[in-house]
Design a protein that fits this description.
homodimer, Sulfite Oxidase, Chain A, domain 2, Immunoglobulin-like, 5-stranded mixed beta sheet, 22 strands, 9% helix, globular
């Protein structure tokens, strides 16, 4: 074995047909975590329950000395401390964020990476300064095309040593709906370390890879950004040598709060016969969710659920509920969201090599116990 | 398939020799999470980074209406709201907590349960009322032997439907060193939902299973407690039909903060040639840590590390550090703690059917890159 970066950092691969989850995948699952689905009861997710994915290490950040530099194709370079950012008029937005790789571990074949099942989601209230305000203050040059964001987390991925870095097209970066934020608070408190302390980007409607954490540099670029996380990772590809399409906005999805109580090991749910309220959340980064349907017979039939109002929170999930009369036996519960542009969730597995943008409907196996069974 | 609790809830098992991590184990790993090891840089762990293990679901808790009842073999039954508990003199203790199953996923054969590697640990400052104060107020009867703690999380485990419930011997429950707490704050803020909001038990020096979360009932018992989590789970057994010994206090362990930077997928660390500071934390629930040794050659030779003072925090981990001169090539780093009673960490795998109390020394593979290799 050599001792060069390329020797320690393998190419992307697919798991063999009968390959269990590897210790490498488990090491990622032990560091990162999803939203325990019962925590969907909270409209705004408490910070420690919101899903977390960190590519490399959580960097150490000293808020007092942190600087955010905005430069590149601008007329005036900005360098701002966190206190200076807090002096701008603050904007607070409720945003549902989902990892682009959510659902990956359920795919066949399974792309070997962070092995999410369905739980890589959360909703927070982010407070910060609109990026468009900072870009206007710096004065974007005519030839600008992309805005590149650099975080402080450092590592190697498929042989490429890098700081985590992503870009947005200029029109998205200075858009008003959604409004991209440079955020310094989550649910009204300073960002926790794992959510980007002291500064992160928030791009409502986009998958998590766009919301660069530990943000310290914004560079306006006159050429399209071609970095690893943009051109190599986070592309929709069927084959390894496809150029692929970029991963951008969140596809519609609904998730159920699993009813009843769980078996510790299998997570199978038990309910008792009678009326059971089924509830959950639904979201789409493409267009507002307009409907949620529920199935209690493993997708054979569907009934509409009652959908909460959006309450002005266009970029956050919406609650939904319906009632179900449970009868003894085995059941599989599912929910399916549809958005205003007619997008819905597939019943058969979509697939791409990265395991991105997967919004296959969730299946929640439930055992309705015999009436006399009390353990 | 039947639809009784016993049909949906399997017995404990060991993984087959070449069985990868199962989707069931992954579902636990996606809900629960460890401490990202770089977060050992914080002497007190931020709440969202502290390890979390929830047996069943995180229950919904309304702090305003929550009651803690203390009854059983006492002269006076107590029923206390959270505000009433806050009116007692508050005690704040810094405590390192570790899951009894930490290290389980590295065992051969692997007990199938929550698949921890080495990261199921964290240190917090817990504020609450000493349990001995509440027991004294209630007046413990002469025939009392155990104190039983019931949490609000409800589920089924190996066929047994239950609220999570554990006991302590009376002398431990009313001990002064360590002092068991009924805690309502973590790091100075209300308990987060996943850490037992609004009340939990804190038993300094004991593995996590003793620190009952969502605590609502304390029953003083005149007979030894024989519940599932005491008599069936959390026992040290070689064979399934052994009676086994109970899991109690935390065995000594040291962990390294992995130096350098990681490969995203393998988590292998890269460092560059030259001086590298190695640092980490060490703890024991049995007796104070008196020494930490470090190996940079996969356990062939060991050198003492410099150990921080305990600073009056007897039940919290201690920091340690040493310097290493990295040379190009592959290295395996390890650290090993010893406590005042002479206990240390094994270099060969200890094993029991539950995968409990495992304190095998950690191995951190590191590649020291060639000087000219910059990715």
């Amino acid at each position: 074995m050599g001792h060069r970066l390329e020797d320690m950092s393998a190419s992307a691969r697919l798991a063999d047909p009968d390959e269990g989850i590897s210790v490498q995948e488990l090491a990622l699952a032990a560091r990162n975590h999803g939203l325990p689905l019962e925590a969907m009861r909270y409209e705004v997710t408490p910070p420690g329950l919101h899903y977390v994915l960190t590519h490399y290490d959580i960097p150490y950040a000293d808020e007092a000395s942190w600087r955010l530099v905005l430069d590149g194709r601008v007329r005036r370079r900005l360098s701002l401390g966190v206190d200076e950012l807090k002096a701008y008029p603050a904007v607070r937005q409720r945003v549902t964020m989902e990892c682009a790789g959510n659902g990956r571990a359920l795919l066949t074949p399974r792309p070997v990476s962070q092995p999410w099942l369905v739980e890589a989601v959360g909703t927070a209230e982010w407070t910060g300064v609109p990026l468009r305000v900072l870009l206007a203050e710096a004065g974007v040059e005519e030839d600008a095309v992309d805005v590149v964001f650099t975080g402080a987390d450092h590592g190697v991925e498929r042989g490429v040593e890098q700081d985590y870095r992503r870009a947005l097209p200029l029109d998205v970066a200075r858009g008003e709906e959604p409004e991209v934020l440079v955020a310094y608070a989550m649910n009204g408190a300073p960002l926790p370390p794992q959510h980007g302390h002291p500064l992160r980007l928030v791009v409502p409607g986009w998958y998590g890879m766009a919301h660069v954490k530990w943000l310290h540099d914004i560079t306006v670029s006159g050429t399209p950004f071609n970095g690893f996380q943009q051109a190599v990772a986070y592309r929709l590809r069927q084959d390894a040598d496809d150029e692929g399409e970029p991963v951008t906005r969140i596809a519609p999805r609904a998730l159920l709060i699993p009813p009843g109580f769980p078996d510790f090991m299998s997570r199978t749910r038990a309910v008792r016969p009678g009326a059971v309220t089924l509830e959950g959340r639904a979201w789409s980064g493409r267009a507002p969710v307009t409907g949620v349907e529920v199935s209690t017979d493993d997708g054979r039939s569907w009934s509409p659920a009652e959908l909460d109002g959006a309450d002005g929170h266009r970029w956050a999930w919406r609650g939904w509920r319906c009632s179900w009369t449970a009868t003894p036996g085995h059941h599989v519960l599912s929910a399916r969201a549809t958005d205003a542009e007619g997008r819905s969730q597939p019943l058969d597995q979509p697939w791409n090599r990265g395991g991105f943008e997967n919004n296959l409907v969730q299946r929640v196996p439930v055992v309705c116990l015999d009436p006399e069974d009390h353990g």
